[in-house]
Automatic annotation (TrEMBL):
UniProt entry keywords in alphabetical sequence: Cytoplasm
Designated name of the protein: Universal stress protein
One annotated Gene Ontology cellular component of this protein: cytoplasm
Lineage top rank: taxon: Bacteria
A Pfam family per the record: Usp
Cellular localization per UniProt: Cytoplasm
Record-linked InterPro entries: Rossmann-like_a/b/a_fold, Universal_stress_UspA, UspA
Amino acid sequence: MSYQHILVPVDGSKISLSAVEHAVSVAKAFNCKLTAISLVAEDPFSGADFYYSSVAIKDYLIQAYENAEKTLEEVKALAAKEGVTIETEIVKGYVSADTIQETAQSKNVDLIVMGSHGRKGFQKFFLGSFALDVLAQTVIPVLIVKE
């Protein structure tokens, strides 16, 4: 099997950067295209039952974009260190498995590489598993990196 285009979602966490390292290795081995995305929620309070000010949203968006850009610059440096070219993009919308799956389909990706914190028990029950949601919702192969 050969890959043509790999997608790696990142959030700045240590595990997502570890996923980038794995994705870079696979992209280098298959000489394929590599894209990293960072998701930014346009309205992080959607569905909330309280009122919030537009100032809070504006401050959130400014900080979220700065964090995403900083993370994507770090991702570019990791790839460059290995001689791999990587495209990066901030994806606006919902921070969800659906958004990752839709982005992967729109970019004709044939592999998604992502990190998983490996939560168990009550942590998994309360916090869920983003990686498992992606895995369950896509027909595209998913490589889960745990460290």
